[in-house]
Predict the 3D structure of the following.
Amino acid sequence: MAETRKQGPAMRPGPRGPGRGGPRHRSMEKPKDIKKTLGRLLAYMLDYKFQLVGVFVGIILSALAGVAGTYFLRPIINGLGEFIGQQSPDLSNLIRTLFIMGLIYLLGSTGSFVYNRLMLNISTGTMRKIRIDMFRHMQNLPIKYYDTHTHGELMSRFTNDTDTLREILSRGIPQLVTSVVSITGVFIMMLVISPILTLLVIIMLFIMLFAIKKIGGKSANFFIKQQRHLGEVNGFIEEMIVGQKVVKVFSREEKVGEEFEELNEKLRKSSSSAQTFAGILMPIMANLSYVNYALTASVGAAMAIGGYLDIGSIASFLQYTRSFSRPITEISHQFNTLLAALAGAERIFDMMDTPPEINEGSVTLVNAEVSDDGTISETERKTGSWAWKRIDSDGKPEYVRLRGEVRFENVTFAYEENKNVLNNISLYAKPGQKIALVGSTGAGKTTITNLINRFYDVQEGRILYDGIDVREIKKDDLRRSLAMVLQDTNLFTGTVRDNIRYGRLDATDEEVERAAKIANADFFITHLPQGYDTMLTGDGANLSQGQRQLLAIARAAIADPPVLILDEATSSIDTRTEALIESGMDKLMEGKTVFIIAHRLSTVRNANAIMVMENGEIIERGDHNSLIEQRGKYYQLYTGMFELD
């Protein structure tokens, strides 16, 4: 939309309209509120509370089985000393111990399988619900949000952030809980076997934690940068795919290649740094654990020689030492991923916390029956007549017939504070009138139509629809009474019939074809491979721009509202096609209030009133003949003395 693009919220324009430029280079922070974010994630996961109980039980079994199984090394090794010098040793106790040990490990393996399988169900189900909530909330966000956020930013929520979050839910969190339980159990058993050796392990633990803090902190920062740069690269690629024709038309392949190389290099550097520090951390932790193992073995041997510890206890303790350091290493490894996932979750929740477009208002649109004396009554059946319904102070319904009268009274509007796009605009359109808005780009034409359907609300003045302030009408009901044909046509994946029916979902096939004939689209549709059942993909890429525009006109025709807004509706149609559909358009506009935004002035000559706009003000108004007689700006534009830019 021209006005939004020029005077709306600041943005970098992309190849297909406002808010679709490359991702902004914004600073990325660590999770601001980890506790709150984890709490919200847990709230989603509580839908699977019984499965979560199973996960917890499985984790406990898996972790404690490892702790208990290691302890059985003590009696096994100590018992082997009894067999020395015996010709026929009794192996029954050893076999029994090994059997119990095997059962414990089998139980632990079963617990591990159960919690991993359940966690997979929980994580995929949780992400499904989060994506549904994200998408539904996205549908309720105001147009201003899309004007100020790029496609890359929004797509990153559904791709990079959700993928990272899914990974941490399915693997990261279970591993984290398992590690905590294992560390706790191992620590208790080490204290039972030897407090002195446990003290030595604790000293080494503090050294390992110091290494994690220093190296892991740097790694976490680079992982966060990596997520940001990945979103920028994905957004840029999406933008270039959408705007590939524009790139080729202006021979900008080399330029966009350079920009992509720059973004990709940033991603490479942040990824390399993140993986470097993450890679350094693991070997350092492993080597520290080896040092810890060697020191423990040396001190334990000395204690065994002195008679303070038996061989079986040393063997069990050494195994616990390995078991103690491994979970700590895993926690340090998961810490970076967890931070990245929480940062992504915060970005998801930030979008979901954006205030939605509120469907405020007390006036609704209802099916109406109009008696001979003009009395209006509400009905459930479709009569083709509509009325505005409001409840008076006594609780009784009042009805105003929907006629399509639109009036602007001293309207001033700005997308940004102190940057007015419209200045004290007053105009009216009586039912059935055709009002044309002409003027250069940025004059405020499209903004007027944006205000009629309440994409934005006015700061000063008011807009009356059949004598009712549009701010009193529920937005859904208001927009049901309007139809728009935009300059940028959007078609959806589906058949031609489905795309026309999008204007009114309960329309029959006959009504779809009748609307196509009104828009003069029936001829080219019937010559498509499957006619009305031809599948459209890629925003109708298999159709010409003019054919796509004809489908948009047919979509408006099937909606058949009392007010019609045509924003450069014929801009992509050649003059021959325009002449063919002129009679159909007249039939479409018959009895409707029509607002036409046009640069091609030949299309507005038969308008009831033409408003010439400049710098957010109406500088001339009248019909075609009167404006020509005035020999003002319209005359200059029409005769070619000036051109609309």
Q: What stands out?
A: Residues 1-29 have pLDDT under 50 and may be disordered.
